[in-house]
Amino acid sequence: MNTANFSAQQLQAERLLLLPSYILLKEGLVQDQAILVENGIFQDIGTHVELTKKYPDIVPVKLQDQLIMPGMIDGHHHLTQSFAKSLAYGEPSEIFKRIWVPLESNLNEQFVYLCTKLAALESLRGGFTTVCDAGTRSEIGMQLMVRALEETGLRCVLSLICNDGRAHSTLELRQNILENAQIFIKSYKQHKNVHPSLAISIPEVASDDMLYEVSKLCANSNIIFQVHVNEHLASVERSIIQQGMRPLEHLAKVGALGPQTLIAHATMLTPSELLLLQRTDTAVSYNPVASQWKGNAVASAHLMHELNIRFALGTDATRADGFRLLDAAEATQKLIFGIPTGDCSTGGGWMWLDHATTAGAEAVGLSQLTGSISIGKQADFLIIDLDTPEFCTSQDITWDMVRLCQRDQIQAVFVGGRICLWQGWPLDWDAKELMCRMKVLTKKAIEASPIQKLHPTAEQHRQLHGQTSQQQSVHI
Question: Which residue stretches belong to region Disordered (predicted)?
């Protein structure tokens, strides 16, 4: 039951003076601090007393037992894939070949727009105010994705894929790709909420010249270059066979690493590759749920943190729930690395919140705009309800946010000072109507696509398990 003593209407004022019980600042959790939001920006931060005296013309919104934190950053997403996320878990690795490629080849204009809008809604509901999209294989224009993002309010680092086919690459093809990339960058460089990026799906689908030129163009344009690297054993082995080196080593050889580069997954890195990331200041998206659902390994994120390797947390279009992502980030590190070494802390809680917010924004190239509650930055933030049974006895709110906080505690989601969601739902468009349309379109898309799902559904698995049990009992 909602016990909020404030309303959505109060939060829609042009100037907001917010008085929460707690604020999560870059340096940690503070009490009895107030925030002034105006023109979509954090304009002032101070104590309740200071700011109410300083701005007597603004009626303050008292947020008793509420916590304000920066909106979370999803460092790796595929907005046109999340509609089929229930096909992903229980599958062997590299499902993109059997599921994503067939599905995305059948996306029409309406579906691209609607599935982007649904994915954006899910992200906002999960506490993400920014997502970093790694690109769609659909050949439909980016304008439809941008339209959906604008209507929902979600901030997005949006990528244009620049694969040139490697074996089929020509100078003319590369020049055309780079010209289109420059047009794309120019089109969205000044956009309020959509920030351009370029991507190559995996190193093996691009020529060495293309890898270098795209990375260089991103560096010169002050945007990020995204590429999936060292995610699955199969891709690592293919690279060794074809290139005589591992995928990350391949990127280093062609000059595609650097501060502009964000590599996705990085679950299978050697010590020398970790040092390579450190030396080149290349960033990583750590995607723990993807490792749980369909991965071969878990990225050594805690070690990356200690080595000052920049990284964000990413969903990889699995489930758009920021707090469950935080829990997965900590839990997988503890299970794989912490328990064997006797490290009971595995980051101390705060580290994962940092990488979901401030450090995440830095990794996706938006640290000057968002990621922290700081004067002058975009007002991307969440109001979290702490008046719950789970938090009434909390002795460590910061760490408990990682382990205990839930999506239904998010009272409001703001992007650029605009309230996008109130208690999980948009105020200015019909989410239920979108859901009804997506149910129909998803069913049609799956039926029309030549996907190859290898794991049975839960009910099919139950039946198979029952048959196996009966056969075993007969033999016994």
Answer: 457-476
